[in-house]
Specification:
Elements lengths: L2 H11 L1 H7 L3 E3 L10 E15 L6 E14 L2 H15 L8 E14 L4 E13 L1
Parallel strand pairs: 1-2
Antiparallel strand pairs: 2-3, 3-5, 4-5
Helix pairs in contact: 2-3
Length: 129
């Protein structure tokens, strides 16, 4: 399972996050005339790759920095969305794909061109490749 699939699935199935965005979770760019609140995610970098040997078969894993841009019509709504991104990811792990995830950074912003607020949440996600 690739990183995009992992991110989209987690964001659209986490109860608190999906209650705010439904399926409005987009890789790299927002569609035109998007309904807010909406979430955009972008892989910023792959930090490293390694093999885990905690199982009988070594598993290749990568750590990616993923930027989540939480767009909303008010600053409070953008912050609430960012809180749910953190709730969905910070400390998350599962036995198949995600080894761990944690928040690395958070920034508040306003997008003049779009006329909406944006809170940026950077997460480090370790996952199987």
């Amino acid at each position: 399972m690739g990183l995009r699939t992992i991110v989209y699935t987690r964001c659209t199935t986490h109860s608190g996050l999906s209650a705010l965005i439904g399926k409005r979770c987009y890789p790299n760019m927002l569609p035109e005339n998007v309904t807010y609140p909406a979430l955009r995610y972008t892989r910023i970098s792959t930090i490293n790759e390694q093999y885990r040997t905690t199982t009988p078969t070594p598993t290749k894993r990568e750590e990616a920095r993923v930027q989540f841009d939480c767009f909303a019509e008010t600053g409070d709504a953008a912050e609430a969305l960012a809180d749910q991104v953190r709730a969905a990811w910070d400390g998350y792990q599962n036995s198949c794909t995600v080894g761990r995830a944690f928040q690395a950074n958070r920034i508040e912003d306003y997008e003049d061109g779009l006329g909406v607020y944006r809170t940026i949440v950077d997460m480090i996600i370790e996952y199987a490749v």
